[in-house]
Specification:
2 strands; mainly alpha; two-stranded antiparallel sheet; 212 residues
Length: 212
């Protein structure tokens, strides 16, 4: 039997409803998949950001601890204590520093012979270090430090000798020459004679001889 128009219409509506339901289901699945992918990407980015932040913070903490350790080591270092405990080492270090300073700042000419000719380029580069070091104050600083170390080490050694051998230390102190203070001659009212007395005295016989 043939289907009536109403039956055909109902069948078409039924199929259309099924197709619409399937389309809605597919759309929902697509939206859910996109949302899940977005959440996954967000979680991955957040995890990467957290990892980077933790790494940077750990590196910062490590650097801070290292700097604090170095500062504490510098603060705890007692130069006087080290010299008292190791006077020979301090004396050797001061002497070595003095030798190195003398070798660098001497400015002596160094000759190179190649086929019997003098190479002046090395001397020019080497000799230029002395004026530069003087201008920058490095020479004065190293000299002052070397002098302090030598003085402290020498005093400590003398103290050890006096504690161990009192009689020998007393004799050694008596025999050591005492530094004499020097008073510079200051000119009075621009008078050259008062500024350079030795030169004036040495010039007097010459003037007398010329007058004769």
């Amino acid at each position: 039997m043939g289907q009536t128009a109403d039956q055909l219409r109902q069948e078409i509506d039924h199929k259309r409803d099924d197709a619409a339901a399937k389309i809605d289901e597919i759309e929902t699945r697509v939206q859910d998949t996109a949302e899940m992918a977005k959440d996954t990407v967000d979680q991955t980015m957040q995890a990467a950001k957290d990892t980077v932040d933790q790494t940077m913070q750990a590196a910062k903490d490590t650097v801070t601890e290292s700097v604090d350790t170095v500062k504490q080591s510098i603060e705890d270092f007692d130069l006087q204590k080290q010299i008292d405990e190791r006077p020979l080492v301090a004396l050797g270090a001061a002497a070595l520093g003095g030798f190195l300073l003398a070798g660098v700042m001497s400015g002596q000419k160094q000759q190179r012979y190649s086929g019997g000719q003098y190479d002046s380029s090395h001397h020019t580069a080497y000799g230029g270090m002395q004026p530069a070091s003087r201008r920058s104050g490095v020479e004065d600083t190293i000299s002052a430090m070397t002098g302090v170390l030598m003085g402290m080490a020498t005093d400590r050694l003398q103290g050890i000798v006096e504690e161990t051998f009192p009689e020998f230390g007393h004799r050694l102190r008596q025999q050591m020459p005492q530094p004499q203070p020097t008073t510079p001659t200051v000119p009075r009212n621009g008078d050259p004679a008062t500024s350079w007395p030795s030169a004036t005295r040495s010039a007097e016989p010459v003037v007398a001889e010329s007058r004769r």
